[in-house]
Specification:
196 residues; alpha+beta; three-stranded antiparallel beta sheet; 2 helices
Length: 196
């Protein structure tokens, strides 16, 4: 009696379905891994930019050829509350002696134009639909203030940093803001180490 060697159509269908299910599970695992990696990279960028800004606020930095002082060791605000962001989302500050200095944390290498989709969408600095922003830096909002100042000896600073690449992706995918930006806050105590 001759028996034909090989698989039946039912066996091939079952093998195909099992292969498809395993492929789908593997694809889902890879997609989740990619998403987690992307979120981790965004957090690294946001924390790096925040750390850079905190460091410059505290200790100062060099802009072009001019040294700009930080808050540490000063009896008064060395910037006279003139810390702002530029139109292209980099940050600048007004020196205590009146010189205007732009300090760049990092410039985003592939600057792009962003059209706002409404107030605060996708950036906090968007005021209405149709506003246009050039994104060349990492700072969205920056607000030094001394509203809660204790005897004019503290400066409260809050700022929002963003990941420009994710902001660009957001224009198409409508990601929630927490996926591409984060707000940081601190208070600096003005010291008495230096005479001013």
């Amino acid at each position: 009696m001759n028996q034909a060697a090989g698989f039946t159509i039912i066996e091939l269908m079952i093998a195909g379905i099992l292969f498809l299910l395993c492929s789908l599970a593997l694809f889902e695992l890879l997609d989740q891994t990619y998403q987690m990696t992307r979120e981790a990279m965004v957090r690294v960028t946001l924390n790096s930019e925040a750390r850079n800004l905190f460091h410059t606020l505290a200790d100062g930095g060099k802009a072009n050829t001019e040294w700009v002082p930080g808050y540490h060791g000063h009896q008064r605000d060395p910037w006279s509350h003139e810390l702002t962001i530029t139109d292209d989302h980099r940050w600048k500050l007004q020196n205590a002696v009146g010189g205007d200095a732009t300090l760049l944390g990092r410039s985003y290498p592939d600057a792009f134009d962003l059209d706002c989709q409404g107030a605060d969408t996708p950036l906090e600095s968007c005021t209405s639909t149709g506003d246009s922003h050039t994104i060349a830096g990492y700072v969205d909002e920056l607000s030094p203030q001394s509203v809660r100042s204790v005897g004019n000896k503290t400066i409260e600073v809050s700022f929002t940093v963003m990941e420009p690449e994710q902001v660009f992706i957001t224009m198409e995918k409508k990601l929630p803001r927490r996926d591409y930006s984060e707000t940081f806050w601190t208070v600096f105590t003005l010291g008495t180490n230096k005479k001013e």
